[in-house]
Each structure stands twice: as structure tokens, then as C-alpha cells.
Amino acid sequence: PNQAVIWRGPLISGAIKQFYEDVHWGNLDYLIVDLPPGTSDASLTVMQSIPVNGIVMVTTPQSLAAMVVRKASSMAAQLDIPILGVVENMSYAVCPHCGKPFEVFGPSNAGELAESMGAPLLGRLPIRPELATLADQGEIEAYDAEEFASLAEKLVTLTR
Asked: 3-class SS at 48?
């Protein structure tokens, strides 16, 4: 379990294609594929091999993350895949004492990033320590957060 799996481009691409083609997906409304940041072999394979209707770009407040997202957005544009919107993850935390949000990683740049891509800013998601705790305990379903429900509703509306 502690061994690293070291795969290069062709192995990654082959595994993604096989997974998509060999699994009986049934009648899906959505298939969400979480990819590593940037323009990796995995991202390129998904964009070229799976019928993608749109991409949601996920960023964080750091400028380096925005740079990586811009490159991925450029790759999507070259492949004629629309950007549905931008989500900023780890956008802020909420003080447990006073309840006020504070930007742990600096000010948000998600609005400007979304605008530069011609896409809407779908939401800014906070850092929630209780979410990490539930995930570690295998009880993620017990987490109830309005910001995720709101984001899901926006995505459903965008893809109708």
C-alpha cells in the first residue's frame, strides 16, 4: 500500500481510455472527471478521448495556481472545449471565535481569472476543518454545506 505507482504518459493514457471504454456507465446525466492541475498527459487524454461537453476550472487564491489554470484553459480552447465556469477552492477560512471569514492564502483572484476566460465565477469554497475530519473518518456524507449545494445547482443550470 505504500508503494508508489510510477506511470508515464502512454500508460496513463491507456488506462484512462480503457477505464472509459470498458466500464458500463449506463445512462448518465453527468460524468465528472477530477484531473490533476495543468496540461498533463491525463488532462490531454481526457480532453481528446472522452466526449467532454465542458470543463469547470478549479483554482486556489495563489497566483501560481491561476497561472496553471490559464494554461489548462488555453489547452481547452485549442481543443474547442468550453469552460463552464471557475471555482476557487480554499478561498477562505471562517474564524471559529468571531465567525468572520479570513483569506488564508491571500486575496481572491478568481473573479478576474474567470473574466479572463470569458466564464462565470461559480463559487468560492472555504477551508472547512470539519470536512477534513469527516473525510478522514470515512463519513463524508455527513457533511452538509450550503456552498456545495449552491455550486451543484449552478452547474445543473449551466448544463441544461
From this structure: helix
